[in-house]
Amino acid sequence: MDTSTRDLQAEVNKLQHELQALKVQHHSDDGEQITISEYLLTRLEQLGVTSVFGVPGDFNMRECPLPRVDYIEDHPRIDWIGNCNELNAAYAADGYARVKEHSIGVVVTTFGVGELSAMNGIAGAFSEMVPVLHIVGVPSTVQLKNKPMLHHTLGDGRFDAYTKAAEQITVSQATLMNKTHAAAEIDRILTDCITRARPVYLTIPTDMVAEKIPAKRLQVPLSRTPPPNDPDVEKYVLDRIAELVEEASKDIVILVDACAIRHDVRQEINDLLTKTRFPVYSAPMGKTAVSEAHDRYGGIYIGSISDPSIKDKVENANLILSIGALKSDFNTGMFTYSVPTSRTIELHSTHTQIRHALFPGIGMKQLLPKLTSHLRQFHEGASQLPVPHYKLDVPKEQDDKISHAFFWPRVGQFFQKKDVVVAETGTSSFGILDVPLPEQSVFLAQILYGSIGWSIGITLGAALAARDKQLGRTILFVGDGSFQLTVQELSTMIHSKVTPIIFVLNNKGYNIERHLHGMDRKYNDIVNWKWTSLLTTLGDTDGTLSNSYTVRDKAGLDKLLNDAEFAKADKIQLVEVILDKYDTPRGLQVAADIGEKLAKQALGQV
Amino acid sequence: MDTSTRDLQAEVNKLQHELQALKVQHHSDDGEQITISEYLLTRLEQLGVTSVFGVPGDFNMRECPLPRVDYIEDHPRIDWIGNCNELNAAYAADGYARVKEHSIGVVVTTFGVGELSAMNGIAGAFSEMVPVLHIVGVPSTVQLKNKPMLHHTLGDGRFDAYTKAAEQITVSQATLMNKTHAAAEIDRILTDCITRARPVYLTIPTDMVAEKIPAKRLQVPLSRTPPPNDPDVEKYVLDRIAELVEEASKDIVILVDACAIRHDVRQEINDLLTKTRFPVYSAPMGKTAVSEAHDRYGGIYIGSISDPSIKDKVENANLILSIGALKSDFNTGMFTYSVPTSRTIELHSTHTQIRHALFPGIGMKQLLPKLTSHLRQFHEGASQLPVPHYKLDVPKEQDDKISHAFFWPRVGQFFQKKDVVVAETGTSSFGILDVPLPEQSVFLAQILYGSIGWSIGITLGAALAARDKQLGRTILFVGDGSFQLTVQELSTMIHSKVTPIIFVLNNKGYNIERHLHGMDRKYNDIVNWKWTSLLTTLGDTDGTLSNSYTVRDKAGLDKLLNDAEFAKADKIQLVEVILDKYDTPRGLQVAADIGEKLAKQALGQV
Q: Does ipTM surpass 0.85 in this model?
């Protein structure tokens, strides 16, 4: 991605917004006055935020007359979700933002101790391009200047240390040091958050929370529209693409990836498919960007890890139209893409690349609709290209044990339209790749950043967003090792009355790490927990709000998945699935083999 | 503290060490070769490290032929303690270092996802001056140079972003980019860690772990000796102090604080007390620096929060000899010290201050023994000064409910010689201040940094260190709110076979935050857990390794504390103590009142 272009875009947006805002204010500086907190919350409401995550701490509460978390608790349309810890809160905000497109995730923590605990969650949102606002309650403006030895400080007067750390993992930062600039600063970082789809960092000193500022500015909405593409360049690009499509005769495939979701071109891609009928495949991080039930959808392409028939179709196409590619190691089958640049067109949010030629500033959001009109002439030819139906049969196996080869296709049959499916990094995110998900379902995994434990917090946020959007069930797949990192958030799920189904894959340790290295190492073993007691221990004390199950064999799994009461998911449910310690999904095994080969090569080179 | 002097000291140490090391190597570059991992582990062993904490991840394991965590697991005298998550691992390393004086805590994490999760724990160790080594397994040197889009990265090629964040919270950093400098780099950061008593950060690329380097350098031990004080200045300082002591006639008190523990002058202070018989008091962070059973010990001084008789004795003394002061808000009763500089002598690790005159470079480690000889003449006079015996009676209360006023003195009677007592930030750390601890006991609390959830990880590390040092029981006091942040580490305690006694103060929420702000706010409520099921759910699946209890009234608490089987602590034990939602320890109530007053003043000023 072209960072400088993106920065310029953001700058243009900000200036336009500021100009409008100043015009409004100019005419009515003496209008209604509201507190800075109210201003911020109204902006969040305008962005569709209904849940704010976090942990209370004194710097985000204690200020008089009304503290910040109080404001949230008192807000009629925004709920305060109190998490068990800050990392989990950051994950929840990430999950919320992923499901609730066009909105953002918000996490509130306190100075130092709170915000640093959230860092890994925020960094993950940065890496995977998820818009999250991190609000930190900090000491008063006077204290920030005088630097007394307050609790939560490093004890050496460096009050800016935490902000410096945050600069590494957020695209924009602001500290509200005076009320004159507060509204403009809030608008600036929120605009960065929504246009760049990455986390931003806002610190609010305790004495700023209740300061009054003019409300009028709120009438100017925040803008997420990217600046227009240069018409001449755009026309050239469109013609050039049409030529190449023509040359490729009918053998063209579309490959969708993460940025198609993050930069909001799913509808545009759907229109392109309807009009052109080109076959479409998806990278792992683009899973569900195009409906996996679409008749022109052929499955997941992940380099050498792909199903051989998919690999063949994609790599041998005359032309690949790649949309929103994000070529990370795990997303490309450990860099095993075999798609030459000379046969590729790449569309990105801020630039276009046709074979080796780069066109900066030509973004896909505006290009795609025009491309669709331009290419509709190929509809008939492309329609004739067969796309093998993407499905996964449940294998017939001799024994009763639940193998990965059995498990993933079997749960595939359980999924319904509009389900939100969350897969933990590692075994689960590899296992589910081959499973086609139903129409309008949403798939969440953290394939680039890959922080274990992520999926528990994510499930909380995703389930709350799914409730807002009237989606279906939220279903999580997580291994026993990963679950242990962030388990306490089950408590917040119970408290928030969301009812996900949680499959805990119990294989007695860090399965992915075992396969990457150390098959029988003690450090890959974990302590076995009584998984089915977790929900009643961590909040459902009288056992009325949840159900827990252990399934040990194929028949047990079948019976549960066929149970209509279970499938209704009107309580939170946890299913412990007993798996063999050494068994692993196909994709993970292939990835581990490639990884080992690469590691050996690397050592040979040194 | 004088940072520049300290930096110079560290520099001198390093150069001296480097010089010695070069001399050794010069004579035998062709001697025994060992891997960089072995070199590092041998250095750790020399520093007395027996447990290393962490979470495995692929960048700290996968390298061939033998990965780093493998090295630790295979080491005969260093145990690998696999934690549930990285924050908890960092806390455990902090707790280990605090109890195991003259050693360090070590935590191992993986690139990005692991290290960032540990940040808050490392920052706490920085703030409170605890020597912790953070080892991070990172991509290979080739990858660090070429910057492919690997998992665990931010996706934008900034491979140095995590190190930049770490620079904010560690005193020294090193990345082992080649084998030539590896040993010197390891020695440099370890020397910084032990001499500056603060965290350091070491990243090891996967391809460096098994590189061979000469072993010979290990013969030169790491030095922690501070450089000598300037003899002329030191003599002047000693004479001046003696004069002031003379002028003060007999009315002199010693006040010990955090840095007396962190900079290792407990023995020197004990000698001073034996020879001079001056009365001695302690700040909260200095609790147990001097035995609380000492006949010249008068209790805890914490400004306006102090017991009035202690406040009177300290603030009206003619001269206060302050040793290792750390004047943070909570450690000074919200900055309510009433001890004028004109009656104070302050001894620090790198400087001395006599009234208003500063003497840089005159450190207490070497000054104290000389001061002791110098001042022994005052023995007789000082002995006549009465020091009220520091004790806390259990009050007679009418009702059965366990109040804080009852609870803390009652558990005080339960403590034994050599117990390690851990108090969570907030209610517990305030509650325990008035309780005298027995001889040779160790007290741990995080009063400056104040990160909730800290004490759970700390208890694991402290209990392992206590086992090494043949100390007594490890006893934790933690509130239900704080416990929820880091609860999973109970699992590691069970696995590591340590047997702490854990008192969970169940008051249905964030008690300290309630008192600081928002008495009936929902955000200060937490979900009630089945506390007595935690240990059997999180690892003691057959219930043979642990016991859990709920005590609801005074009689129940008495009965349990009088039970010899319970007191033996040969299993891990959890005691849920039911307390009133609004009750609070005396000290916390006073602190909250002062805090509120200050906040109102601050707003008045703005």
A: yes
